[in-house]
Write a structure and sequence with these properties.
This protein is α+β, with helices and mostly antiparallel strands. The protein is 34% helix and 27% strand. The protein has two domains: 55 residues; 105 residues, Beta Barrel (OB fold (Dihydrolipoamide Acetyltransferase, E2P)). The protein starts with a strand and ends with a strand. Bound molecules: zinc ion.
Length: 184
């Protein structure tokens, strides 16, 4: 026999609940201690889970970045073939519209080489079909395609592929070169 810890009635030794006041006979300190260890246990496992989760995440990040470079590598941009005569006519009629339709576009066109920069930084293309059209396409090179300039010469017809980076009524068209090839 023992006494209820709430109403102090005499109750059975193994009774968990007092039959008189219906209150639990479990020791509050013991319950708190058990709760404390459960929480500690949960924190520990949570921390462990987070660590393993983190390493999984870092693995997946490196995996996805490597797979994305694998995915982007075989992508070959297809240039839009445009006519330089049309481009220059568009620029003459409305520079704003020309800027809207050509800026940022990856294009391929045929033109006549008019200027080759001695530093190899750029070359200019003029209209091969109309010598009185003074608009120009200025083509900027990068270190990777600078050597291509050595294979072209003034007044030569070339096929140029690149991205239009700017358009203006005075500057004409500016392109970042991707490739240039002399036309036989
Ligand atoms: Zn009781």
């Amino acid at each position: 026999m023992k006494y209820c810890c709430h109403c102090h009635s005499e109750i059975h030794k193994k009774a968990w609940v007092c039959p008189y006041c219906k209150k639990s006979q479990r020791n509050k300190i013991a319950i708190n201690l058990i709760a404390f260890f459960i929480i500690l246990y949960l924190i520990f496992w949570n921390a462990l889970f987070n660590v393993s989760n983190y390493s999984e995440n870092s693995n997946s990040i490196s995996y996805s970045s490597s797979s994305s470079t694998k995915r982007s590598a075989p992508v070959i941009k297809t240039p839009v073939e445009v006519d330089l005569e049309t481009m220059f006519t568009d620029l003459d009629s409305n520079a704003l519209n020309a800027k809207d339709s050509y800026k940022g576009k990856y294009i391929k066109l045929v033109g006549k080489v008019s200027i080759i920069d001695s530093n190899g930084a750029y070359f200019s293309i003029s209209n091969p079909t109309n010598q009185w059209n003074f608009n120009t396409l200025q083509v900027f090179t990068s270190s990777k395609n600078k050597s291509m300039l050595k294979k072209i010469s003034k007044d030569q017809l070339v096929s140029v592929t690149g991205t239009i980076i700017d358009v203006g009524e005075i500057i004409g068209y500016q392109m970042q070169l991707d490739s240039v090839k002399a036309i036989e």
